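Internal ticket - ligand job 471, S-adenosylmethionine:
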Amino acid sequence: MKKWTILENINVEKLVFWWQWFARNLDWRVIFITWWVVPWSIVNLRVLKSKKDYLETQVFEVIKKSPIEKIHPNNPYWINGWCKRVNIPYNEQLKIKEWQVKEAFFHIEKIVWKKVEISTIIWSPLIDWYRNKVEFSFWKYISAREWIEEHFNVWFHKQWEFSKIEDIDWFILIPEEINKIFRDIKSFAKSTSLPVYDQKIHEWFFRHIVIRNSHFTDEIMIILSFNQNYNNWDYDIENIKNFFTKNLIKKYPKIKSIYFSRNDSLADIAIWELELIYGEKVIVEEILWLKFNISPRSFFQTNSYWAEKLYSLVRDIAWEDTKDNIVLDLYAWTWTIWMILSKNAKKVYSVELVESASKDWKENAEKNGIKNMEFVNAKVEDFLDDYLEKWLSADLLIIDPPRNGMHPDALPNILKFWAKKMIYVSCNPSTLARDLQFILKNNEYKIEKVIPVDMFPHTHHIETIVSLIKK
Ligand SMILES: C[S@@+](CC[C@H](N)C(=O)[O-])C[C@H]1O[C@@H](n2cnc3c(N)ncnc32)[C@H](O)[C@@H]1O
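stdout (structure tokens):
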């Protein structure tokens, strides 16, 4: 079949991988559809690649909407890159995710044969408004060809068309109060008549608005990013400061910290040279009775509310085996898991590649009176080699790798500890299944629990916790 051939009236059957869907045409030929489409829609597809056994395609047009598609009452306009599934009712979103984990495991013989049970997905009671961080971009869009002149927009980039910004006043995933603050900053920025930065020529003024908040302690941090080299001033920067440090904090007393990001970076990034113009340097989040400082540069789970659930599930599975034992927390990121487990363990080694990801770890450990941890800034694969060479032991492994799963050099080494338990937290069922296949190969471990957790409603993200015990 030729490239660009259009296949008509195809029924989208199911999700197979990360964002790849499955269908068949009349000859029962397998069709993969890449990128987002609602299951059970009838679509026309465009062929991208034709292989012997299957076709790779993309959606050309939707002929009939899926019966499960329903416009979300709080988001009546359009989906954006961050929440593609917003127009699918939450119970259907959960079915898709649960099914996605089952599909990934379906090919692992040891799991199919042993009839390992996959728990019902743990759903999030907070479906909208759960994100604790948002970054909006100021942008202009001027196109003579399209007869468009938009000099002031601020929101997110349009998917597939980075040069355009959707001009919308709220975002369904952030709390209502943060949306109100965003609208106030937006109308203030507009009222100044200061020009919006132009990323092509690197000139003019407003660049980004970043808002972070802590769910459990209800504190808010704002960062306004602007081009500090803008020199066509007919406006006093003190007026901008006054708006934030007087008007805004009066209206929203939960705002605890405000920064200017004086930003002459050529890249489209928000956080650059920071100047604290109001309040505290950090806001504080509290998860499972531990306090975490969040600075403008800190990494943190974007749904703190349900992160607490995820971490408490890990804690409960790990707790007995942590007692006075040595724990390896591989792929540590924001140090959260090891802080939680260090309360019980003899010693926790926390390994993370990006040093800045855990840069506040020391401060946070001190804040919470934790002394039995060691932060290792290394690649997990190198760390395991060194650790094993020194004949050091580990009783429990917590593994929480990025989407592409564990490095092939690290996988064989995790088996050499003879650890009593391993807990693998995954954000990608496909690579999880691949790594489990390896771990289960020699019959040394068996699966105890598989728990899918929905941390990010309206998105394609799904977390899965798997605990494995030594036979
Ligand atoms: C899913 S996150 C971990 C989340 C973390 N456990 C938590 O609860 O907040 C994966 C982390 O692995 C880190 N990473 C990626 N490749 C790595 C490697 N080869 N060695 C060590 N860390 C790595 C990434 O920087 C990222 O912080």
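Auto-summary: The chain has three domains: 6-64, 97-126+303-470, 133-287. The chain is about 25% helix and 30% strand.
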